[in-house]
Amino acid sequence: MYCPEEIEGVLLTEEKIKAKVSELGELLTREYAEKNPLFICVLKGSVVFFADLIREIKCPLEISFLRASSYGSGTVSSGNVQFSVGANIDMRGRHVVIVEDIMDTARTLFALKNELLKREPESLKIVTLLDKPSRRVVSGFSADYEGFAIDDLFVVGYGLDCGEKFRNLPYIGILRQQGTYCT
Ligand code: IMP
Ligand code: MG
Question: Pocket of ligand 1, candidates 44, 138, 160: which has the most ligand atoms within 8 Å of its Cβ, to mutate?
Answer without folding.
Answer: 160
